[in-house]
Amino acid sequence: MSVYDKLQALGISLPPLAVPAAAYLPYVQTGNMVFLSGHIARKDGKPWVAQFGRNINTEEGKLAARAVAIDLLGTLQHAAGGDLNRVKRVVKLMSLVNSTGDFTEQHLVTNGASELFAEVFGPEKGAHARSAFGVAQIPMGACVEIELIAELA
């Protein structure tokens, strides 16, 4: 089953390439490796503003991380010349979770993205290394920001 068949089965439409909000590129490719800049969680087209441990819970956070993963897939599609079937492997995610000092479930929030990549690319190509950090703030007050490294065929 192609990546696009899986996306269709999941009811996912990919967004167009996001325009950077500051002085950076949405992605950089060197050799077969592509490095995607951090994407923030959005809800209804606006930054999903919240802080874990204060006004958003882990289950909502998984949905936010999944939304970020969908945006990352849109950028990755552009980086892959319009064909996500060229993705050889999702190599690594780095997740920043806007949280209070006593919130400790950053890894569970980030599962929302990790699980989607495994669903879309399968367990071989979608499994990846990962870091999940709790941070005091993310640009625009977003609850989650995730960056991605992938290998293209």
TrEMBL record:
Official protein name in the record: RidA family protein
Superkingdom: Bacteria
Pfam families: YjgF_endoribonc
Ranges where the Endoribonuclease L-PSP/chorismate mutase-like domain occurs: 6-152
